Amino acid sequence: MVLLKRLVLDILKPHSPNSLDFCATLAAAAVDMQVSCRVIAVDAKTESVEVCIEGAELHFDQIEASIRAQGASLHSIDEVEVVSLVDQNS
Amino acid sequence: MKLCARIALIGEHSQSISIARRYFVVNGFDGALTMLGIIVGFYHSNPGPPNAAALTIIVSACLGAAIALGASGLSSAYISESAEQKSELQELEAAMVDDLDGSSHGLAARWGPWLVALVNGLAPLLISLFILLPLLLPEAFSLLRANVLETAIVLGLGAIFLLGVFLGRISGHFWLFSGLRTLVIAIATSGVIILCTPN
């Protein structure tokens, strides 16, 4: 079994919600998640942000759904960190 | 999502809360001044306490105006706000190069106009009903031993003063000055009505 531990995402989002609310809503999508955000570029109506998400077991589908629900779109997955668990039966 | 959180989200994305607050004062003022004008007009034409037949006519005229103001506020705000919100959503979708219909922005564009329309329609209706209370329930106000029209005029002036106080608190100005300013407008309007209507 493989667990997703860390993701760095390139996201385009509207100005509203702001980065603080955007990350708080992302973090609320699951328990034990750390979310950090860096604004890369600001346009008239949008901004590009780099979001780093860390946790014991991330669920990409939930994260993606939360991003879309906030009106943002995922441009690319820039970094991924996964770990494989030791199979107890082998 | 809880109702309060949903309303807060709609308000944040569509700025409906600040628009609704503005509409509440604008249309609430319209309602209060219209009721005051009708009642002052009736009072000027017959300063004595109205008999049952006269009271029915006054209440019918005022209720008709209040309902019309409520319906006008509801429909006009919904039509204008839904067009505005739709246009803003389309602009945002063009910037995002994405369909935002299923997002919180789409939700705000759909429900924001209803929130604004509800406030815009209910404000004049509820404020009018408050001013009409002495005419709708004359027995409840009989303890005051005053003409119900005079009591309604005092309530109308009080409602307009409170709307001014509310405006003052929003803008950060001194509440008493703001309240007195709207009160002066209401008294001046009443004066013009008295001068222009036959006795």
TrEMBL record, chain A:
InterPro entries: DUF211, MTH889-like_dom_sf. Coiled coil: none annotated. This is DUF211 domain-containing protein. The lineage of its organism: Bacteria, Pseudomonadati, Pseudomonadota, Gammaproteobacteria, SAR86 cluster.
TrEMBL record, chain B:
It is found in: Endomembrane system. Its main location: membrane. GO terms for biological process: intracellular manganese ion homeostasis. Pfam families: VIT1. It comes from the Bacteria. The chain crosses the membrane at residues 24-43, 55-79, 114-136, 148-168, 174-196. It comes from SAR86 cluster bacterium. The lineage of its organism: Bacteria, Pseudomonadati, Pseudomonadota, Gammaproteobacteria, SAR86 cluster. One of its GO terms (cellular component) is endomembrane system. This is VIT family protein. One of its GO terms (molecular function) is manganese ion transmembrane transporter activity. Keywords: Membrane, Transmembrane, Transmembrane helix. It is a multi-pass membrane protein.
